[in-house]
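[recover] target loaded
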């Protein structure tokens, strides 16, 4: 009966199930092909109960492990058959009922959600991120770029979209470890305020600004975006909006509009869904990695922008850049896995690699992309063509960036 259930799930490709007694069961045929090894036969019952949650939890517990092709092969097989993995109607109703509660991110809950992920262990992030500690999608404008180079390319691209002038006041909502704020101050002679809720990010960013001697132009605040006041020429937010939660979408964009000067520009860089809204976020990711978050569809974001009166001056969709970024992060994580196991335990390492490889698969074979929403208070403050974004960066700037990477790497 259980195997017939798997037959309904696997309509394309092959799943090889390896049992503890060394027997192997093949489900389906052809490519893609993936393998799972079961610690005990009864693990199947657990996996059938709620595949999207139980597969991750059982992997963390060591109840199953992948064979040839590793986790990536299993995720590829999953996305080849994703339409067959619908949850039961009862689970759908329960999750829909809880959705608004889970995403109602009050100031207190937002702080708790941030600490759950970003305050795990600073060394973890320093080991698997680039030297600038950029924890968001890189921009591989050249296929031969390293991760560090692609993260600097992202900063250049974002800076161009902000149309910065020397002396501009810039707000960075969700500034992370401060890399983008420091980049903008160094390369564009602007004054930057960065907001974060993370203890580790705040401490690291402040230390770095002090070390680099730019505290007169860059300051970091441990503050919720809803509590901030001021007037800014430009507002940027990279990788933060997906933590806002649907009930707060309008609040977020209203605050951006309130803080922007009449000639102000904004760039919102967020993971997005290349399809219609869903009733529930990915359960395992929400529970173990990013509590309180939600990845928006464009149809959920556009009305909020419209209600502010701001102009959507440009929209760019990055495809596959995040898949490559996550692949680089996983390579670096695996290179230091023994260190992380000693510091954080084997179960954590399994959770983290399931997260990195699972997200890589979603961006490669699934529906996730990155949205770049460029906003302006008026429709005449941003150039009317995209030419300004793709002019060659002066060689002197690139040499300076490469030298910085060499010093911080």
């Amino acid at each position: 009966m259980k195997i017939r259930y798997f037959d309904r799930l696997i309509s394309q490709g092959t799943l090889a199930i390896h049992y503890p007694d060394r027997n192997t069961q093949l489900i389906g045929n052809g490519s893609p092909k993936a393998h799972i090894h079961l610690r005990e036969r009864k693990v199947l019952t657990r996996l059938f109960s709620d595949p999207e949650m139980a597969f991750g939890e059982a992997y963390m517990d060591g109840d199953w492990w992948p064979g040839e092709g590793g986790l990536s092969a299993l995720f590829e097989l999953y996305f080849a058959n994703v339409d067959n993995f619908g949850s039961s109607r009862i689970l759908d109703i329960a999750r829909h009922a809880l959705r608004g509660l889970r995403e109602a991110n009050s100031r207190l809950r937002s702080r708790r959600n941030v600490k759950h992920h970003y305050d795990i262990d600073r060394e973890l992030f320093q080991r698997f991120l680039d030297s600038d500690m950029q924890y968001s999608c890189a921009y591989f404008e050249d296929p031969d770029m390293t991760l560090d180079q692609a993260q600097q390319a992202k900063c250049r691209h974002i800076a161009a979209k902000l149309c910065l002038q020397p002396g501009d006041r810039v707000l960075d909502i969700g500034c992370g470890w401060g890399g983008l704020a420091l980049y903008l101050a160094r390369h564009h002679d602007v004054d930057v305020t960065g907001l974060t809720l993370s203890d580790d990010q705040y401490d690291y960013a402040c230390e770095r600004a002090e070390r680099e001697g730019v505290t007169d132009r860059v300051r970091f605040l441990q503050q919720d975006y809803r509590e901030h006041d001021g007037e800014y020429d430009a507002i940027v937010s990279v990788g933060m909006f997906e933590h806002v939660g649907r009930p707060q979408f309008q609040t977020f964009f209203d605050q951006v509009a309130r803080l922007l000067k009449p000639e102000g520009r904004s760039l919102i860089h967020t993971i997005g869904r290349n399809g219609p809204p869903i009733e529930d976020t990915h359960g395992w990711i929400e529970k173990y990695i990013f509590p309180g978050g939600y990845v928006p569809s464009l149809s959920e974001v556009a009305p909020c922008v419209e209600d502010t009166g701001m102009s959507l001056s440009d929209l760019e969709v990055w495809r596959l850049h995040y898949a490559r970024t996550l692949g680089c992060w996983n390579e670096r994580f695996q290179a230091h896995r023994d260190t992380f196991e000693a510091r954080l335990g084997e179960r954590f390492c399994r959770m983290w690699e399931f997260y990195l490889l699972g997200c890589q698969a979603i961006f490669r074979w699934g529906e996730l992309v990155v949205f770049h929403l460029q906003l302006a208070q008026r429709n005449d403050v941003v150039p009317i063509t995209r030419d300004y974004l793709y002019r060659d960066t002066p060689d002197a700037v690139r040499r300076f960036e490469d030298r910085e990477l060499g010093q911080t790497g």
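[recover] notes: The chain has 17 helices and eleven strands.
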